[in-house]
Amino acid sequence: MSQAIAAYLHYLSIFTLFALLSIEHVLLKPEPTVAQARSLMRVDLLFGIVAGLVVLTGLARLLWFAKGPDYYLHNGFFHAKVAVFVLIGLLSVVPTVRFLGWRPAVKAGVAPTVSAASVRHMTMIIRLELALLIVVPLLATLMARGFGTF
Q1: 34: Cα within 13 Å, side-chain hemisphere
Q2: Residue 66: what pLDDT?
Q3: Residues 30, 122: contact at Cβ < 8 Å?
Q4: Taking Cα atoms as reference points, which of 81, 85, 100 lies closest to residue 42?
Q5: Rg of the Cα atoms in the chain
Q6: Angle 87-18-28 (CA atoms, 0-180°, nearest 5)?
Q7: CA distance 130 to 15
Q8: Cβ–Cβ under 8 Å, residues 122 and 98
């Protein structure tokens, strides 16, 4: 039963990650209001927390459940899946740093000043993250079916 719960939490956290990124994509607009900026900052914080949950539940599955570390560590699709997830994490640093830069203005009740170019750049990064996140289940499916074993 605990294996099923760990798998469920892992999948649920990945779906939540996709939902949070989608929300960021919708909320990100040029000249955000204080409320919009605050919402974006909260969603981004939740994204980071949920990404951590994905890692923790994934590690739990790797170490104690499913097929065990030997299976996963000798599978190219597992390594590709982890690499894609790390890339998503690295890409997410750009919007996060920008949102953190908004904190002083938002705390003062002032809407942050954001250029259209900056919004376009962050939007493209979020879209790339979403596209990469869609690849993760494909890699997981291939891995679970025994493809990529070395």
Answers
A1: 8
A2: 79
A3: no
A4: 100
A5: 18
A6: 90
A7: 11
A8: yes
Could you tell me the two tokens for 46? 């939740």
Mind giving me the DSSP string for 124-141? HHHHHHHHHHHHHHHHHH
Residues 6 or more apart whose CB falls under 8 angstroms from that of 145 comprise: none
Residues 114 and 30: beta-carbon distance below 8 Å:
yes
Q: What is the pLDDT of residues 28-74, one digit of tens each?
A: 999 999 999 999 999 999 999 999 999 999 999 999 987 889 999 99
Q: Give the pLDDT of residue 68.
A: 87
Residue 106 corresponds to which tokens in the numbers above?
């938002």
In contact, 45 and 95? CB cutoff 8 Å: no
**Tokens 């002083």 sit on residue:** 104
Give the integer Cα–Cα distance in Å for 107 and 2.
Answer: 43
The H helix count followed by the E strand count for the chain is 6, 0
Give burial (CB, 10 Å; 0-12/13-18/19+) of 20: buried
